[in-house]
Design brief:
Strand content: 15-25%
Structural class: alpha/beta
Mean pLDDT: 91
Oligomer: single chain
Order of helices and strands: EHEHHEEHHEHEHEHEHHH
Number of helices: 11
Distance between the termini: 20 Å
Largest sheet: 8 strands, mixed
Low-confidence stretches: none
Length: 250
């Protein structure tokens, strides 16, 4: 089982990237589980027809007793979708939703029942503390990728995430695989991302170009991989999926 945590600043296109990767990997015949680790609980929307699924925290609050069928939803593309959720606004810690979701999935033996080949964690990276660091420090993920553009705040978040991963990495936890460059297409952007990658001692793994098929697919509540399988952006996501499934060369 391969476990990959994908971090990035809010609004950078991280969930779009993760859901397209999930769809691409499922298309390869793999059993994929995508776990959304953001209080907005919208990581899997493009896999579930544009609809939000009940979150782990909401189901626990409403029902108390929880079964796997209550919190794991299989999308039309075959991806197993989970949203951790967050607290009632203004009350409690957002990171607690991630911790609770992980604990509940383990308690219900989700990984044994579904036997996923790949688990993708979609994690908000604006703040790398508490529950948001769980995939890094809790032994849940093997590798971390960071989605970034060349915008200053995106690169700032990427640097913070990279330092957190490297700090936990010395304890034998998840390692940083590299940056996924989600382009905004402004002058000099690629050079800025390359410079940042060098400063945090990592590589640009992949360049995702801007493509209108992404927005067109999202209007349908779908990934580009599902809605436009023959498009160049769909092929890009499939290439990235194959790259991430390869074992990292030492």
């Amino acid at each position: 089982m391969k476990r990959i945590a994908i971090y990035g600043k809010g609004g950078i296109g991280k969930s779009t990237t993760v859901s397209n990767l999930s769809a691409a990997m499922a298309k390869m015949g793999l059993t994929v589980m995508q776990i959304g680790c953001d209080p907005k609980a919208d990581s899997t929307r493009n896999l579930t027809g544009g609809e939000n699924i009940p979150t782990v925290l909401d189901v626990i609050r409403d029902n108390g007793d929880v079964e796997l069928d209550d919190i794991v939803y299989k999308s039309s593309t075959g991806v197993l979708c989970v949203e951790s959720g967050g607290p009632v606004p203004g009350i409690g810690c957002a990171g607690r939703g991630i911790i609770t979701a992980f604990e509940k999935l383990e308690e219900l033996n989700a990984y044994q029942v579904y036997a996923p080949d790949v688990i993708l964690y979609d994690v908000l990276g604006d703040v790398v503390c508490g529950g948001f660091a769980m995939p890094i420090r809790g032994g849940y993920a093997d590798e971390v990728c960071i989605v970034t553009s060349g915008e200053m705040m995106s690169l700032y978040a990427a640097s913070n995430i990279a330092h957190a991963v490297q700090s936990f990495g010395v304890r034998g936890y998840a390692r940083l695989r590299g940056l996924i460059f989600n382009a905004k297409n402004f002058d000099g952007e690629e050079a800025l991302v390359q410079k940042s990658a060098e400063e945090i001692d990592t590589d640009i793994l992949f360049h995702i170009p801007r493509d209108t098929h992404i927005q067109m697919a999202e209007k349908q509540g779908k990934t580009a991989v599902e809605a436009f399988p023959d498009s160049s952006i769909s092929k890009s996501y499939q290439d990235l999926a194959r790259l991430l499934l390869e074992e990292e060369k030492e």
